[in-house]
Amino acid sequence: MSRIVPDPVERYLAGLNRLSDPVLNDIAKAGTDLPLVDAEVGALLRVLATSLHATRILEIGTAIGYSGIWLAGALPAGGMLLTLEIDRVRARQARENFARAGLADRASVIVGDAERMLAKVAGPFDLIFQDGDKRLYSPLLDRLVALLRPGGLLVTDNVLWSGEVIPGYVEKPERDVEDTRAIAAYNEHLNAHPALMTAIVPLRDGVAISVKRSG
Ligand SMILES: C[S@@+](CC[C@H](N)C(=O)[O-])C[C@H]1O[C@@H](n2cnc3c(N)ncnc32)[C@H](O)[C@@H]1O
Residue ranges of the domains in the chain? Predict the structure, then answer.
């Protein structure tokens, strides 16, 4: 039972979602032991990227390419998703999945530690999706803001962390306590960041949407 969105509401939203497709469904089934976004967060990513007319997207934490396909599917020909993954095997599976989805020409999977690789990545990006190591969320925030264009969006997954970031809410926490502390600190940092305006959507595990202020 989800502590954030009641199960009947999750099922209702899943039933309404017309954007999912068979390739995405297969990938989700194959990666069930991985913490991938679900189709509702995927649809949110697709809608946000489409509404921005995004041509350059950056993702931290590719896994096997599930969220990446939702994002890259919003790109026009010539657009590019750059996605960073530390695990070589997952990165290879992601490349195969982008090819199966017909998106190999607009998704580039970079293998390596995001903390190191981000120094080499050049902006600006229209949208950045942060879904990598939770303890790196705060340390990477200023770098990601610098890579975002004014008016661009930083989307961060798992900011409610099964409700465990909410003091006193979860009787028997199951998540790694250091990760929980890192996300709670990040939420404060994100909401107070002078270059960002942030809203948190309590969908699935909590999604923060931050727009970079102009000027
Ligand atoms: C939550 S999963 C990403 C799920 C994916 N965004 C999706 O929804 O389809 C997080 C991924 O980040 C990767 N990761 C963890 N630490 C990393 C780091 N320092 N640099 C790059 N990737 C990292 C993990 O190997 C894992 O595959």
Answer: 7-212
Give the distance from CA 45 to its chain's centroid. 8
Top mutation candidate among 25, 86, 178 for ligand 1, by most atoms within 8 Å of CB = 86
Give the global pTM. Answer: 0.98
DSSP H/E element including 191: helix 177-192
The closest-lying atom of ligand 1 relative to the alpha carbon of residue 31 is: 9
Residue 148: both structure tokens together: 């975002």
pLDDT in tens, 8-47: 999 999 999 988 788 999 998 887 799 999 999 999 999 9
Query: How far apart, in whole angstroms, are the C-alpha atoms of residue 190 and residue 181?
Result: 14
For residue 193, the Cα-to-chain-centroid distance in whole angstroms is: 19
Indicate the top mutation candidate among 20, 133, 159, 204 to test ligand 1's pocket, ranked by most ligand atoms within 8 A of CB: 133
Class of 7-212 per CATH?
alpha beta
- Determine whether 156 is exposed, middle or buried from the number of CB atoms within 10 Å of its CB (0-12, 13-18, 19+): buried
3-class SS of residue 2: coil
